[in-house]
Amino acid sequence: MKNITMLALLASLLFAGPARACNADPIVFIHGYSGWKSQFDTMINRFRNDGTPACAMYKFGYNSLTQSNKASARQLRSFINNIRPNHNNRRANIIAHSNGGLVSRWYRVFEGGSSATNRLVTLGTPHNGTSWAYGCVSPACFEMRYNSSFLQDLNGRGCDVSLWSAVDEIIIPQTSARCGNSLRTSSVGHLTLMVWKGVYDDVRRFL
């Protein structure tokens, strides 16, 4: 009897069809400089509570402390290319915080991301640089400085929707976070942009 049960189990594994694709546009959440993936958990839970299937949401992590945004953008390209087949090759939406928005823009402009993505919503991204970046030393920090060669190469390209806060203590001046279709969101601090309900509501308007 045990052998028959084992054979039945093996047969079910062998002849089961492929896993069903996730019937929703993928959403990729990208943290900022020195950040981590779980910082978006609150926003992800809000999406889930509002009906977005869990299979559609992904968190992309990268090493912002040691590598350039260009290298991170190449990793983002591989990441999105790997998940799109699970969604019938639908284009991805990206929600990126701070420096993650610069990684996303480079991906869209120089790594083929414009054809693989739909919306890019950035939260407190230093699109035009920030004085805070002069207080740290790393490739990504250099790229966040005013008039860096990285920002000059982007030359305003790759933007879509940018949300910015008038009291952001990291993006200085705060209006540096404006690029493309810009919206002043809730007046909250830099990290709070990822967890505040009012910011989430603004993000939802564009997806």
Q: How would you describe the overall organization of this protein?
A:
This protein is α/β, with parallel strands linked by helices. The longest helix is centred in the middle third of the chain and has 15 residues, at 69-83. 34% of the residues lie in helices and 14% in strands. The chain has one domain: Rossmann fold (3-Layer(aba) Sandwich). Strand 1, helix 2 (41-49) and strand 2 form a beta-alpha-beta unit. Helix 3 (69-83) crosses helix 4 (99-110). The model is unreliable at 1-19 (pLDDT under 50). Strands 2-1-3-4-5-6 form a six-stranded parallel sheet, with helices on both faces. It has seven helices and six strands.
